[in-house]
Amino acid sequence: MIALIWFSLGLWGYCYVGYPAILRLLAVFHARTAVHVDPVEWPLIGISIPAYNEARSIAETLEAVLACDYPAGRRQVVVISDASTDGTDEIVARFASRGVELVRQPERKGKTAAENAARQVLRGEIVVNTDASVRVHPQSVRNLVRAFQDPDVGVASSRDVSVARMTAASNLGESAYVGYEMWVRGLETSVSGIVGASGSLFAIRRSLHQEYLPESLSRDFAAALVARVNGFRSVSVNDAICFVPRGASLRQEYRRKVRTMTRGLATLLYFRRLLNPFRYGVFAWMLVSHKLARWILPWATVALAAALAGLAAGSTVARALLAGGLVAGALAVAGWIWPRDRDMPRIVSLPTFTLAGIAAGLHAWLKLFAGRKAAMWEPTRREAAPGDVDTAHN
User: What is the DSSP letter of 292?
Assistant: First the structure.
């Protein structure tokens, strides 16, 4: 039981403190210099936007994409409708005169299937993948494309910024986690390259994007893995900002996490050869540390709780730690039922976000063990307030 306790606490410490500390140390001796020069001629790019029933937001999304600071004659914008039924297609069709193309899936099959269908339509040297629910900073596309001036770069990912309505319940836990994740990706970029791109906004060489992916996999995670298999590295571009509104509710965020982690586990299993350190060296270690080790944490937490319960009768320390866990659990329950129209205090939001993530991880593993694929893609319905983008950026 004592060994379980030390293993569980050590794994938590390694994943969130030890791993970035080692990356920071490695960066001192193995730092890579980013390329910041413009190409002689900006390449033709294809901007891919999968959408399912996005009538409420697709027009605003397209206006933001068309307003990006990238030569209009050097971009192609394609919306892939995953058999939408709410008028999304009709709204997109109104942008045809401005160069927006619509590809409609006759049958709903999910995001990765929609992206697979768009491969034959996209003509650019670089494919920029984004989401209908986010807002892209006007200079972000140009900054992503600039990263490909380095011939070793196969994927360039955005720096996500979590934003929310000031008057709505804000998940501060999600905001803190997104900021931490972007910091870690920055460290990975300086060492060997990120192990997964942002689903909100990332760019990839067309030759890599053309590779078919099974529909049950996550393309944003797989993009970095495909790049590595083909001898490229993936980078996080600090100046390529993407504003990601927080989920409207914790329950919605929980369902999203279960889907994301189930697809992530399936993707890692599909590319498991990259876990071989004898062939992929530092990248294999980073993949284990950033992805696999974190996904093992839910089971380590269950083991920790069981070990503390077993020792509680004869150990004051075990009782104290177990009591702390119960308090965190009580706060998480309070966060789960917290009114959506009231701001959630940090003392509630942080344990709520953490424990919800642990529960979602267990749920995802059980789905994988049961041989069940992730639920059909259901885009997270987010609400972004006017002015949030400027406030967050400044």
Answer: I
Nearest CA among 159, 178, 179, 182 for reference residue 239: 159
Q: Which amino acid is at 57?
A: S
Task: Count the neighbouring beta carbons within 10 Å of the beta carbon of residue 149.
Answer: 14
User: C-alpha angle 280/241/194, rounded to 5°?
Assistant: 5
Pairing outcome for strands 75-81 and 153-163: unpaired
Q: Strand 201-205 and strand 126-130: pairing?
A: antiparallel
Closest by Cα among 194, 183, 131 to 157: 194
Scanning the structure block, which residue is given the tokens 């709410």? 86
- What's the predicted TM-score (pTM) here? 0.86
Phi, psi of 121 (to 5 degrees): -95, -35
* Helix, strand, coil percent content, the chain, rounded in steps of 5: 55, 15, 30
Position 4: which residue type? Answer: L
Tens of each residue's pLDDT in the chain, 394 residues: 888 889 999 999 999 999 999 999 998 877 666 667 888 899 999 999 999 988 888 999 999 999 999 998 899 999 999 888 888 999 999 999 999 999 998 888 888 888 888 888 998 899 999 988 888 999 999 999 999 999 999 999 999 988 865 334 445 667 778 889 999 999 999 998 999 999 899 999 999 999 888 988 999 999 999 999 999 999 999 999 998 877 666 777 788 888 889 999 999 999 999 999 999 999 999 999 999 999 999 999 999 889 888 888 888 888 888 888 888 778 777 777 777 667 777 777 777 778 888 888 899 999 888 876 555 556 655 554 334 443 333 3
The radius of gyration of the chain from alpha carbons, rounded to an integer in Å, stands at 21
Structural domains of the chain ordered from first start: 2-10+285-369 (no CATH), 45-282 (3.90.550.10)
Largest CA distance in the chain: 75
- CA distances from residue 239 to 25, 161, 194 in whole angstroms, order as listed: 23, 11, 16
Main-chain phi, psi angles of 193, to 5 degrees:
125, 150
